[in-house]
Amino acid sequence: MENNFYQFKAKSLQGKEIDMEAFKGKTVLVVNTASKCGFTPQYAGLEELHEKYKDKGLAILGFPCNQFGNQEPSDEKSIAEGCLINYGVTFQMFSKVDVNGNNAHPLFKYLKNVLGGTLGKKIKWNFTKFLIDQNGKPVKRFAPITTPEKLEPEITKLLEQN
């Protein structure tokens, strides 16, 4: 069976296992996040995209990661509170994961393999973004400096194909 996005599972910030099958038929944006990063304000832009397009078929999935500059040292409860209090995040957040190395979450191993970056397959920093079409096919990878607002044309293009 060919690997695809829907074969993976991950634990939510609340510890509930979520099957990526739950996002079948949706355009999905997967982001590795951190609470204490220069890019952390992107949470606000991601939430705006979520609010604007969730009813049109967009799902944003945030995966906190502490592999870059120790910028996500908090536990799940603190991460959840910080996201909500500081940025009003209502999109799906998951438990902390590794995105590089031997302990990288299988979903990130897969995404990096399909969409290698400009500097190889490793994820270089927080807020790297992967766009997945409604058939579970990863279509584009975006650098941390690419703001959520700049993703909008790519997202709307995929949503129109729905």
| Approximate strand percentage | 15-25%
**CATH architectural label:** 3-Layer(aba) Sandwich
Task: Give the overall pLDDT as a whole number.
Answer: 93
**The level-1 CATH class:** Alpha Beta
Return Rg in Å. Answer: 14 Å
Order of helices and strands: EEEHEHEHEEH
Quick recap:
This protein is α/β, with parallel strands linked by helices. It has helices spanning 42-53, 76-87, 106-114, 148-161; strands at 9-11, 17-19, 27-33, 58-64, 92-93, 129-132, 138-142.
Report what the structure shows.
- The protein is built from four helices and seven strands; from the N terminus they run E-E-E-H-E-H-E-H-E-E-H.
- The protein is of the alpha/beta class.
- It has a single domain (27-161), classed as Glutaredoxin (3-Layer(aba) Sandwich).
- Strand 6 and strand 7 form a beta hairpin.
- The radius of gyration is 14 Å and the shape is globular.
Features:
162 residues; 29% helix; Glutaredoxin; 4 helices; alpha/beta; two-stranded antiparallel sheet; 19% strand; five-stranded mixed β-sheet
Summarize the SSE layout with pairings:
Layout: E1 9-11, E2 17-19, E3 27-33, H1 42-53, E4 58-64, H2 76-87, E5 92-93, H3 106-114, E6 129-132, E7 138-142, H4 148-161
Parallel strand pairs: 3-4, 4-5
Antiparallel strand pairs: 1-2, 3-6, 6-7
